[in-house]
Write a sequence for this structure.
């Protein structure tokens, strides 16, 4: 992980809705994702070895709760999006 140029989930506090922030912190803590700046706000990268999975997260989604839920589901479905 050392060579990745990313951003820590905690740096996004206040930049994304709380529901999404909480999920990002949790998934990062579990080592399931890493983040970088890009897209509308941040790009969520799947941390699984060799997995190209990524999702863009905006700062002002219409339905943050839904986005948070989908992020969680996306990560737990990781083997399917390889
Ligand atoms: Zn993945």
């Amino acid at each position: 992980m050392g060579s990745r140029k990313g951003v820590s989930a905690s740096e996004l506090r206040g930049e994304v809705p709380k529901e999404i922030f909480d999920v990002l912190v949790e998934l990062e803590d579990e080592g399931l994702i890493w983040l970088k700046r890009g897209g509308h706000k941040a790009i969520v990268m799947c941390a699984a070895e060799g997995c190209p999975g990524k999702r863009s997260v905006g700062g002002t989604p219409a339905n943050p709760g839904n986005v948070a839920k989908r992020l969680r589901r996306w990560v737990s479905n990781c083997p399917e999006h390889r």
User: Anything to note?
Assistant: The longest strand covers residues 33-38. Residues 9-81 form one domain.
